[in-house]
Write a structure and sequence with these properties.
290 residues; 2 domains; alpha/beta
Length: 290
């Protein structure tokens, strides 16, 4: 899909830089955002054009990409009265980068297929920095032929793009990602708080154990800011609780036990109650300090 006609729906902290990479790669990009002023600002910075609705943005596009908030947003933007699917040509592809449920992915897949449109659920990992640097990891669910066509476009802002299985498999893989992160951040919080209480040099501890089996992305990228009590950046607690709610609901459906995830979710609820809903997820350590 070199120099494709692309639509991008949703220009939040993730979608805006992702769409920007597409424009710089030479694609003809039309954007839509619920707040029209954000779309106008994006066009002023990146070129292309904006549209007043998802349907208007999707009209004539070879591939439509979206990154919105939750299941309800996915339904509205993809399938609503002014949604993208109804305006898309048969054989074109809709890719959803939202972290949402596997059930809504399958719902949109079926509705799109009925109109001859191909659909991929393709949530991302890597956070705002990954989006800005074009280094996201994308886990995809859907049909192999649609994936093969879409992969070169997704690779513009990703370091890894992997087809995980049929419709919904991308969202299920993202759930695994969030489950793992929840446990890691709580463990890191407990470890760093323990180090401080024990009178150790926390930064030196991080340097040493970061060279061993305890090393993780969270340690490398959040350890020092956790030690410095800095949380006004990164992946917000509010977003993590939304994601964990999806994980816990899926666990109830498929019988997977998620006891640690359930506990960490409640810890995040306590962070929210302290006014930390927009703090980075690494703010769990504040519950141990205070």
């Amino acid at each position: 899909m070199a120099s494709s006609k692309v639509a991008f729906l949703g220009l939040g902290v993730m979608g805006s830089p992702m769409a920007g990479h597409l424009a710089r790669a030479g694609h003809s990009v039309t954007v839509y955002n619920r707040t029209a002023a954000k779309a106008a600002q994006w066009v002023e910075k990146n070129g292309g054009r904006s549209a007043a609705s998802p349907a208007a943005a999707a009209t004539g596009a070879d591939i439509v990409l979206m990154c919105v908030g939750n299941d309800a947003d996915v339904r509205a933007v993809a399938l609503g009265a002014d949604g993208a699917v109804a305006a898309m040509k048969s054989g074109t592809i809709l890719v959803d980068h939202t972290t949402a449920s596997a059930s809504v992915a399958r719902e949109v897949y079926a509705a799109a297929k009925a109109r001859g449109v191909r659909f991929l659920d393709a949530p991302v990992s890597g956070g705002q920095a990954g989006a800005e640097n074009g280094k996201l990891t994308i886990m995809v669910g859907g049909d192999a032929d649609a994936f093969a066509l879409a992969e070169p476009v997704l690779a513009v802002y990703a370091k890894a793009v992997t087809l995980m299985g049929g419709s919904g498999a991308g969202q299920l893989t993202k759930m695994v990602n969030q489950i793992c992160i929840a446990g890691l951040v709580q463990g890191l919080s407990e470890g760093l708080n323990f180090a401080a209480k024990a009178g150790l040099d926390v930064e030196r501890v991080l340097d040493v154990i970061g060279k061993g089996a305890a090393q993780s992305w969270q340690m490398d990228n959040r350890g020092k800011t956790m030690a410095a009590d800095q949380f006004n950046f990164g992946f917000a607690v509010d977003w993590m609780r939304k994601d964990l709610a999806i994980c816990l609901a899926e666990g109830r459906n498929n019988g997977a036990a998620l006891p640690v995830s359930a506990i960490v979710d409640q810890f995040y609820a306590r962070v929210q109650a302290r006014g930390g809903g927009r703090w980075d997820t690494s703010s769990l350590i504040r519950l141990l300090r205070d």
